[in-house]
Request: fold
Amino acid sequence: MPYCSTAIKLRDECDWSVEKALAAIGKEMFNAETVHLLDGDSYNIDAGLNDVRAIVNSDEQLICLFCRYQKDVAKVEAKLADFGSRHSDECTLVAVDHKGMPK
Reply:
């Protein structure tokens, strides 16, 4: 599954938890009523379609998204940019490598 080249990083001064940010991304960007923990740090956030997943790095307060299909990456990155703009007090966008690690 290809990773997005940008990720959401929570600002140090924000009141959001990673879980609250995940819920907001799922609801606002993918019309999901809830997000579902799949394993350790991986979540289904796209209303059960299983085309987009989030991986959380709690130590870094980082939420990386990856897609089932390469063709969806640009669309999901646009959604991340939109979310980041809407919630710039709580988070910022950061560049990540092809495995979701900060550059």
Q: What stands out?
A: The chain has a mean pLDDT of 91.
